[in-house]
């Protein structure tokens, strides 16, 4: 029996009207656990893949090809459980975005997330982000929508931390009008802002909940009552694994690091975040 296309499965979940909770998937083990533990959806976390697969923090250091390869592995393990996949900035201009969408769809993902940061991007809960213009991102979004065959296209804005909440809401409404299936404002900074976004955006909404990030962690019932469609938890399993590994290595005689992985910034510090920042500051982000 042929199983339905990944995008169709995710659309069916969204049509049901209940909040879709998508834990982070970053390696084969996490994908198996998401499937075996009854989750309706998984989230391929770019930061998690950068860390677990390549030993680098979430600063746009992983390529489209590397991410698509990981997406194929996770989608195969998950089977009928749809996978939402982080595609960062699309890895270039509109033609690069088109190629990225095709590669991700071949990998078997259900939805592809694009963001309006300038390249190289950085984790949405880190400071000093830069944006492309609204029109530039709409062009990328148009290229994605033109070539996609099955997947949902998710449009993320990082404007909250750069231009403020009102501008961020304006951007996601523009992206929804341009055809994005799901939108999300990255890193709202209070419960009031979470509610304000839900009140002023009519398109299906995604929220990103990160331990130690800028957004308060709220439960599924609260978010569903506000009208959110998807809640991703990219860092929850990843940080738990890292903390458990620190404990295990300490029991073997290792020296505990000065920083901990109890929140996302400390986790990236374990991967050399400050060293990468130093390179960027010395030679320029662009």
From TrEMBL:
Keyword entries, A-Z: Lyase
SUPFAM superfamilies given in the database record: Phosphoenolpyruvate/pyruvate domain (SSF51621)
GO MF: oxo-acid-lyase activity
Family matches, as Pfam families: PEP_mutase (PF13714)
Keyword Lyase among record annotations: yes
Name of the molecule in the record: 2-methylisocitrate lyase-like PEP mutase family enzyme
Naturally occurring in which organism (per UniProt): Amycolatopsis jiangsuensis
């Amino acid at each position: 029996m042929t199983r339905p296309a990944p995008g169709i499965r995710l659309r069916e979940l969204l049509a049901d009207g209940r909040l879709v909770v998508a834990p982070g998937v970053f390696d084969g083990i996490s994908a198996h656990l998401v499937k075996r533990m009854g989750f309706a959806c998984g989230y391929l976390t770019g930061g998690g893949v950068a860390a677990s697969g390549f030993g680098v923090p979430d600063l746009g250091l992983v390529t489209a090809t590397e991410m698509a390869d990981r997406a194929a592995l996770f989608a195969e393990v998950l089977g009928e459980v749809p996978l939402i996949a982080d595609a960062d900035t699309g890895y270039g201009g509109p033609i690069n975005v088109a190629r990225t969408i095709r590669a991700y769809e071949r990998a078997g993902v259900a939805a592809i997330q694009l963001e309006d940061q300038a390249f190289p991007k950085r984790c949405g809960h880190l400071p000093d982000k830069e944006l492309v213009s609204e029109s530039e991102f709409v062009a990328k979004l148009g290229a994605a929508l033109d070539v996609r065959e099955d997947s949902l296209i998710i449009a993320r804005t990082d404007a909250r931390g750069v231009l403020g909440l009102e501008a961020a809401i304006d951007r996601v409404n523009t992206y929804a009008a341009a055809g994005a299936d799901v939108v999300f404002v990255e890193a709202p900074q209070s419960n009031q802002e979470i509610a304000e976004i839900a009140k002023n955006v009519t398109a299906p909404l995604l929220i990103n909940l990160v331990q130690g990030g800028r957004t308060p962690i709220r439960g599924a019932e609260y978010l569903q009552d506000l009208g959110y469609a998807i809640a991703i938890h990219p860092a929850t399993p990843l940080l738990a694994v890292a903390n458990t590994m620190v404990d295990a290595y300490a029991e073997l005689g290792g020296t505990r690091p000065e920083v901990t992985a109890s929140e996302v910034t400390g986790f990236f510090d374990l991967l050399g975040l400050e060293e990468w920042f130093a390179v960027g500051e010395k030679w320029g982000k662009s």
